[in-house]
Design goal:
Helix 1 packs parallel to helix 3 and helix 2 packs antiparallel against helix 3. The chain is built from 3 helices and 20 strands. It folds into 2 domains: 108 residues, no CATH class; 271 residues, Immunoglobulins (Immunoglobulin-like, Sandwich), CATH 2.60.40. The protein is mainly β and 390 residues long.
């Protein structure tokens, strides 16, 4: 074997090793699957596998991140493949392509993490809709009659006992058999919402009528649209660990310290709690709760969910009701204001709870926010006269 060949075989493993390092490092910055909060050394800590830098991971106060996990899980596999490739080459199969293929395969396999925990109670979605393919077709003719069907998904965690879909945007003298309003619901707790065992949420189809085209013009075509607007009640359920301390400025060895907390991941609903700020008072604790409309639709007063959107006035929009508040095992607190008017999509309330424990302790803060929500979709149609024989 000449020196050139020996040098080639010696360099190849080094090249492959160097190429494997970016893949291994990239794995360190994979999408965060689970993030939690815990108290360590009297501090509020963020815990979870090392993941992509997000607004949550940037809310650190002084070394308050507890990170766990094997960051270079993929590197040993990559090294194994590199060694295997070197052996193959030394055996006489000089194939750089083969080595690279094996490396790619190994890194891909290494990305399959065991025991990944998906936080299903997150996100910012409610109901999403689209018109079913072919129902109606995009081109319709005079005297045609086609079913008009909507597909609807409940991508959030709330059930919907009664929602209504309203149609608009078309000439009812041309498309004559569409219903102005059609009811829908998502009421099955197991199948009709996003949950631990149903992470995709609920699905249903809604028939909103027929096209029944009446179009008597002999030339030209009409380009029109059908707009579907879903109006429905929705609920955001928020729950998180908090530290309660009636005397936060008193020194001592405490199990936790009161601190603000950002919650940027959402709670499986379009209105999301984004931040909580605790404030200690005599025999009480108060939390400033900030939330915003993080979805793609519009918030309305929950009392107006049975109203056609065309009949809503500006004062009916952007109201969120704080329907429940609870701190650990205590009775419900008092939140003011109870009905919050969002400004530029954001709002806040103050919830106050009686506290009897003299020492600092960790407990659970639970809230329910109720509101109406509007989601829309539309489809474009071309209406033509029926072809006439000459």
């Amino acid at each position: 074997m000449n020196k050139k060949k020996v040098l080639e075989y010696a360099i190849l493993p080094v090249i492959l090793l160097v190429m494997s390092i970016p893949f291994a490092v990239a794995d360190m910055f994979a999408e965060e699957e689970s993030v939690g909060i815990k108290y360590v050394n009297s501090g509020l800590m963020e815990t979870g596998d090392f993941g992509k830098i997000t607004p949550l991971s940037l809310t650190f106060e002084e070394s308050d991140a507890v990170i766990k996990g094997n960051y270079l899980n993929s590197l040993p596999v990559a090294l194994f493949v590199v060694t295997g490739a070197a052996i193959i080459v030394s055996a006489g199969i000089s194939s750089l392509i083969l080595g690279l293929t094996l490396l790619t395969f190994a890194v891909g396999c290494a990305r399959i993490e065991e025991g990944a925990v998906v936080d299903w109670h997150s996100g910012f979605k409610g109901v999403e809709m689209n018109f079913m393919e072919g129902a109606p077709p995009r081109v319709v003719y005079d005297n045609d009659s086609h079913d008009v069907m909507l597909e609807a998904w409940n991508k959030g965690t709330s059930l919907i006992d009664h929602g209504t879909i309203y149609l608009s945007g078309y000439d009812s003298g041309i498309l004559t058999a569409l219903r102005n309003s059609t009811s829908f619901n998502f009421t099955d707790a197991d199948a009709d919402r996003k949950s631990e065992y149903n992470p995709e949420g609920g699905y249903t189809t809604v028939n909103v009528g027929k096209t029944n085209v009446t179009y008597n013009f002999t030339t030209g075509a009409l380009n029109t649209k059908i707009k579907a607007t879903a109006v429905y009640p929705y609920t955001t359920e928020f729950s998180t660990d908090v530290c309660v301390d009636r005397n936060p400025y008193t020194p001592g060895d405490k199990v936790c310290e009161m601190a603000g907390k950002a919650t940027p991941g959402g709670q499986g609903a379009p209105v999301a709690v984004t931040n909580i700020e605790p404030q200690a008072m005599k025999d009480k604790v108060r939390f400033k709760i900030t939330f915003r409309n993080a979805g793609n639709g519009e918030v309305i007063d929950k009392a107006k969910t049975g109203t056609n959107p065309s009949a809503l006035n500006p004062n009916d929009y952007d109201y969120v009701n704080i329907s429940e508040s609870k701190l650990g095992g205590t009775s419900g607190g008092s939140c003011q204001p109870t009905n919050v008017k969002l400004v530029n999509g954001q709002g806040f309330t103050f919830c106050t709870f009686d506290v009897s424990n003299a020492d600092a302790y960790i407990t659970r803060l639970d809230l329910k926010l109720k509101y109406g929500y509007i989601s829309t979709t539309e489809i474009g149609l071309e209406v033509r006269s029926s072809p006439r024989s000459s």
